[in-house]
Amino acid sequence: MIDWDDVRYFLAVARGGSVRAAAGRIGVNHSTVLRRIAQLEERLGAQMFEKLPSGYRLTAAGEEVLELANQMEASSHQLETRVFGRDQSVRGLLRVTLAPTLTAHLLMPDFADFARLHPEIEMEIVSSGELANLTNREADVAIRVVYDRKTLPLNLHALKGPDLFGGVYMSRDLLAAWRAGAPDPIRWIVISMHGIPDWASEGEVRTTAVPFKTTDGEAQIAAVRQGLGITTLSCFVGDADPLLVRVPGSDLHMHGTLWLLTQGEIRTTKRVRLFTEFISRRLAAYAPLLTGLSITRD
Amino acid sequence: MIDWDDVRYFLAVARGGSVRAAAGRIGVNHSTVLRRIAQLEERLGAQMFEKLPSGYRLTAAGEEVLELANQMEASSHQLETRVFGRDQSVRGLLRVTLAPTLTAHLLMPDFADFARLHPEIEMEIVSSGELANLTNREADVAIRVVYDRKTLPLNLHALKGPDLFGGVYMSRDLLAAWRAGAPDPIRWIVISMHGIPDWASEGEVRTTAVPFKTTDGEAQIAAVRQGLGITTLSCFVGDADPLLVRVPGSDLHMHGTLWLLTQGEIRTTKRVRLFTEFISRRLAAYAPLLTGLSITRD
DNA sequence: CATCGGTGGTGCAAAATCGATCCGGCTGGC
DNA sequence: GCCAGCCGGATCGATTTTGCACCACCGATG
């Protein structure tokens, strides 16, 4: 009889492409993965991978096994989801995933309020760059900005929130200096992988052709606060920052709509219901800030 | 993350009804099962079993989990089946399941011939009382006696063999003694759990009302050879035994039809094809013996 | 009422597994 | 052309898991 847990290692290697990558995902030493794969292949009596110097690649047999291994994983996830969905106690873990910017510049105070309100709920904010997969139980609730509602995952329950607008911002000091006849050039501050959005205009100010690139949203904000130039920001970031003002003559642009996503069986959990009700009220209160109506255009 | 192999232990306990029964099935110490179930419950954060003095019984949560655990098992079995089905080498394991009587009194010489013909095939004859489940990969080939072809499992591939007839037998010596005016009473020899089949008649001989019961087919044959009385036997047993004769005036009765069963993906294996072709030829040659036509009625 | 076969549970020693580390080989970028 | 960063593989000591023996308990049975 094969060890079912070995199939989990098999999946990790098949996806990671190498033993070491798989070990990183699972969180074990790579030699463990090596041994478990060898054990699985021995018990099945067939090679699942070609052992190349560049990594492990699936053989034809491995490709066929992959399909069933995915089925096992799906059943395992459903199993966990079903057990978790029965959990009606208030104490326990609640994992929320959302974009880092939303966490840092808008919702962290609300998360703190919620945590104070329910001290027995253990909270985990999964706020990395990638989208966490609710079906895989990487998180219980997701707060997402969705541009086209047709792109919402069909298997998830979605609760609509306010629309999200963005604008073009610069530092208050830089605007004053520019009005006084700026000595320094004004540059576009962009995130490398994104570039300048097509909707953004410079408004009344003039920028040099030489952009200033950052890899990270926080670095971008820090740069614009330093008066390096102008950049596009969500209104809830730019309008809430006393050091920043909208670039005169620039327009707002709708980024998308906020959605609260939960998964079927997990949604029935008391913790999840408490959180979604709490945070959707807070989001509704933030609607003017999010849509850019909190301040009057100057 | 849960250990997927723990789900296998969960299934064994759910089916066995107790930790010790599950340990017996899996082939480990019962304390191991105890610890793995405790680990699973801890990681899931829910009780799967009520710990009664009489054993482990599923909780409501456990019932819900059982369904998904079965799915995982089904995927695991399909996975093994698919890998095994790719195996086109002649060397390796071949497991055959069939009724003990068929093994001992008819086919063992043929199995021996096959093993001599293919010395690199490791053979295993699974000839316990219960039907082995091909879908669970407990065996690769099954030889079954089927009374109604509608009862054949639909998911298996079935190859029809000869019909199987039975009759009423007694020892040659007893018949002679009875014809000479028997001093001893002639008894019905029956297997306890079966009783006297409704189709069987005593023929010309007279039996006492007191039956002789055995638990086991081999004991039944030994008893009739000892001249204890008359009994129903398959023709291939009774006709092939020089010590036995059919009871004068008794009739034959069709027991059913022999079928060679294999499972879809496993059927494509070279070993399985070699075996089914070999054994179906032998079965065809045995047709007169199996249908009771090998000897003329006296 | 004692016994016997079944249950779950618990220390402790042995065995199997795992993690850290080192090694050789490959590859791509400077 | 060299070096850094991957890769798989092997080794060895530490850690975890397992098996074994035992216990208490419960129910049926003689």
UniProtKB/TrEMBL annotation, chains A, B:
The keyword S-adenosyl-L-methionine does not apply. Keywords: DNA-binding, Transcription, Transcription regulation. It comes from the Bacteria. One of its GO terms (molecular function) is DNA-binding transcription factor activity. InterPro entries: LysR-type_TF_proteobact-type, LysR_HTH_N, LysR_subst-bd, WH-like_DNA-bd_sf, WH_DNA-bd_sf. Residues 2-59 form the HTH lysR-type domain. One of its GO terms (biological process) is DNA-templated transcription. Belongs to the LysR transcriptional regulatory family. This is DNA-binding transcriptional LysR family regulator. It comes from Phyllobacterium leguminum.
